[in-house]
Amino acid sequence: MSVKILLEESEIPRQWYNLAADLPTPMQPPLGPDGKPISPEMLAPVFPMNIIEQEVSQERWINIPEEILEILYRWRPTPLRRAFFLEKALGTPARIYYKDESVSPPGSHKPNTAVAQAWYNKQFGIKRITTETGAGQWGSALSFACCLLGLECKVYMVRISFDQKPFRRLMMETWGGKCIPSPSTETNAGRAILEQDPDTPGSLGIAISEAVEDAVTDETKQTRYSLGSVLNHVMLHQTIIGLEAKKQLAKIGEKKVDIVIGCAGGGSNYAGLSFPFMADKIAGADITIIPTEPTSCPTMTRGPFAYDFGDTAGMTPLLPMYSLGHTFVPPPIHAGGLRYHGIAPLVSQSIIEGLATPRAVHQTECYEAAVLFARTEGVIPAPETSHAIAAAIQEANKAKEEGKEKVILFNFSGHGLMDLVGYEKFFAGRLQDYPLPEELLNKSLLALKDLPKPKVAKSGRW
Amino acid sequence: MSVKILLEESEIPRQWYNLAADLPTPMQPPLGPDGKPISPEMLAPVFPMNIIEQEVSQERWINIPEEILEILYRWRPTPLRRAFFLEKALGTPARIYYKDESVSPPGSHKPNTAVAQAWYNKQFGIKRITTETGAGQWGSALSFACCLLGLECKVYMVRISFDQKPFRRLMMETWGGKCIPSPSTETNAGRAILEQDPDTPGSLGIAISEAVEDAVTDETKQTRYSLGSVLNHVMLHQTIIGLEAKKQLAKIGEKKVDIVIGCAGGGSNYAGLSFPFMADKIAGADITIIPTEPTSCPTMTRGPFAYDFGDTAGMTPLLPMYSLGHTFVPPPIHAGGLRYHGIAPLVSQSIIEGLATPRAVHQTECYEAAVLFARTEGVIPAPETSHAIAAAIQEANKAKEEGKEKVILFNFSGHGLMDLVGYEKFFAGRLQDYPLPEELLNKSLLALKDLPKPKVAKSGRW
């Protein structure tokens, strides 16, 4: 059998899958500062209305516009790969498959939603999109998408990453995006922070505040803001990953998947792969679904299910999600994309239901897994992706112990060519596992006490 | 029509094409220090005999071992892409296609021969391979190949690149290769240089000397040296590129290619794409074949056809090739892979025959082409590759002027994600076109006078 399973362009999924339609308990709404549900109209200065409609949609299937597919065809359908060489190295009876999202020009799954969001903004007459980026994967994906669609793109990049990761910024600029360090002097939010602390390294929370302010204060009303994870419409756009994977497994006669794994920061690549399989699980299939996260930022495994802000400054609506508290600052692990205090509401609700079983993994175990993967499968993983690989290896070893021929599927969310510094530290023996900063966490969790509480609504079916 | 034309694994070419079998005048042999032809046996301490046999083979078609194909399947067949968006931006009636060799895990065409060479070495009982690398593309490809085949790999990397490009070194180390700066204290050649000049930035010539010395002085006789370009067997292994492209063009009914373009440093990616089309030209087809090079290192457009050394120190056999003289040091353009004084003997002889028409392009024109390409096609090119893109754009513009529907094919030899510094300089307006250092060139060419002269043998058919 082949190491890679391909689909023809004609076989690409033509609809996205919306998990909200199938969850046994309905999603709880985002809340405003007054504790009342946010209406679609209230979001209109931030997002275009066609995207807001997707955000609140209860439709199970949503058509993918042909013009979006035309752009996705540049790298989609992506290969599903059989990890023969990793299997052999592990001596496992498990069959391990991975969906290779690293083949997009920006090198990750992020363009799946960047292209869709840019297209919907353009349809709505928007000329310019703002966003924030931490390590730079999202900023480069949105710059890429805006470039292909002829939109302006402005990225507020956390200052410390801006200084330390010039190559991500250069990717954005090569695609015509404008990338500036945050906090900047271009927004009230940025200026206020700089006045207090001119040498601040910045944070994702500050960068979100700046990008949102930039969008809503544009007097021409032709600018909107874009978010690369967490929200329902982002999860939706990523489901093309899992829908393709199902077709690919069917193509080679692989009838049943036992375990589905994805790393989860905001949750989008994990949701993209797993939600179509979760639909099968809701319909009765026996599938174990594992979102993996860093032990040093254990949102799903340690956080409560709470209403919390999406940003540090508390400017966004309150979202019902697992959260470590919006002031929690995770230790500086290399998987920057997983250093987020919350997780997507859809991911959260499916965990409440018992549809998924989160798992936390230590940084050094992840790098060990990443190096084994690079030396067997040949592709160098992003630090975020290594969390999925580590869990897949744990499951493959368990299958070996049990002598079971399990089928394991994980998402290879991105390559690590822009993030090799962590590997250097690993090889030099300078990579560490950070203990969870318990005191900081407790302080951060305290702040949740004053916020509204979501219902822990659970059907009890799983 | 689709933006990408794919082949099934079952459609992969199963033989390499050897241009030597079809050139109307026979290739002239490499010469030893005494001016006499080098025999295969004399090369035995440097290369395994199965590779030496390929080097001197006159067979037109050479079977690709199944085990090599099994490794190539990880990323091959590579896509052929129609550059619709670039065409549109140029407003050209030409149809532009590019073969995308950037999809290999190391990001370039280099693994095509790295895997083959590592496999033949392993077959011959070799346990360890040495090589040199400049910018790092070849070193990372050979590390990758050795890793997959379980061989040790030692890379002597030019010191200035070793210091300036830590990420390429980290790629090699992630694949288990050992990479050290050259000159090193591990060889006589390295120690001698360091004694003279402890602060030397190193050079490709020095690194070749060290890698060869390392291989031939291994007392266990289980080490050999590997070269990533120039030699006949390297060109051979790369012809899979052009053979695939021909199948892909046939698949979409594109009956005739008018222009074939590749950038050429040592010549391997250019030869890989063009040689199978050159076979058609030899058989009577009307095809224009254009190897492109930097104006600041104009080997093919300014150099004489001469016998010259492959390395700066004059340790290799003399090869019949276009050369600027082995002491020529090209200006520090960003396309490090094109900063070589010579060009493959097979490429040279086909130019003598009139089968190919070399062209030199300035650095800034190349970066303009690269940015236009990134912003239309979406993929960021390597600086070397931008030389092929620039020539393709020149030809597309010419087709527009002439109002002709020409078919242009070029090789997208690698992505630029590891080489974004040149883009930064370009955007900042700090990128320059270097004048050819005429005095240096004249001095370098003088040294050729004392070496044997090849016959300028020419059939006169083109």
In short:
2 copies of one chain form a homodimer. Chain A is built from 18 helices and 15 strands. Chain A has 462 residues and is α/β, with parallel strands linked by helices.
Label this structure with key terms:
globular, 7-stranded mixed beta sheet, homodimer, 462 residues, alpha/beta, 18 helices, 15% strand, 39% helix, Rossmann fold
Q: Can you characterise this structure?
A:
2 copies of one chain form a homodimer. Chain A has 462 residues and is of the alpha/beta class. Chain A has a domain at 4-9 and 63-107 and 232-448: 3-Layer(aba) Sandwich (Rossmann fold), CATH 3.40.50. Chain A is built from 18 helices and 15 strands. In chain A, the strands form 4 sheets. Chain A has a 7-stranded mixed sheet with strand order 1-4-5-15-10-11-14, sandwiched between helices. In chain A, strands 8-7-6-9 form a 4-stranded parallel sheet, with helices on both faces. In chain A, strands 2-3 form a two-stranded antiparallel ribbon. In chain A, strand 12 and strand 13 form a beta hairpin. The longest helix of chain A has 18 residues, at 385-402. The mean pLDDT of chain A is 96. Chains A and B meet through helix 5, helix 7, helix 15 and helix 17 of A and helix 6, helix 8, helix 16 and helix 18 of B.
Mean pLDDT metric of chain A: 96
CATH structural class of the domain at 4-9 and 63-107 and 232-448 in chain A:
Alpha Beta
Largest sheet of chain A: 7 strands, mixed
- Give the neighbour order of strands across the main sheet of chain A: 1-4-5-15-10-11-14
Largest interface: A-B, 36 and 36 residues
Question: Which runs of chain A of at least 5 residues are low in confidence (pLDDT < 50)?
Answer: none
What is the CATH architecture descriptor of the domain at 4-9 and 63-107 and 232-448 in chain A?
3-Layer(aba) Sandwich
Would you give the CATH topology of the domain at 4-9 and 63-107 and 232-448 in chain A? Rossmann fold
In DSSP terms (H or I, runs of 4 or more residues), the helix count of chain A works out at: 18
Assembly state (oligomeric): homodimer
Question: What coarse outline of chain A follows from CA principal-axis ratios?
Answer: globular
Strand content of chain A: 5-15%
Q: Structural class of the helix and strand makeup of chain A? A: alpha/beta
**Helix percentage of chain A:** 25-40%
Q: Whole-Å distance between the termini of chain A?
A: 36 Å
